[in-house]
Design brief:
Length: about 90
């Protein structure tokens, strides 16, 4: 698994489609990748906080902010291009 694949998984995580803690490949990548650990740790805490308040569905505004924040942190950590495709952001 690459860092970019991680980023894609995390987007699904924000969408509530997967739980990264259930994914062995996810954990395996984290074990060897410092930048991803930092980004994911922050993201997990944020998502958990919101979900405790909102059951499972994230409000659309929060959802959008998380996606944007994820990409921003990711770029800061990985130093460049972690996007692919149709994002105008
Ligand atoms: Zn990584």
């Amino acid at each position: 698994m690459t860092c970019q694949e991680m980023l894609r998984l995390l987007n699904e995580y924000i969408d509530g489609e997967i739980d990264p803690s259930l994914c062995a490949e996810f954990e395996h990548h984290l074990a060897g990748c410092d930048p991803c650990q930092v980004v994911i740790d922050t993201l997990r805490r944020t998502v958990t906080l919101y979900r405790e308040g909102a059951r499972y569905e994230l409000p659309a505004a929060v959802h959008d902010r998380l996606h944007a924040e994820l990409r921003r942190r990711w770029r800061a950590r990985h130093g460049g291009s972690a996007t692919s495709g149709t994002d105008a952001g």
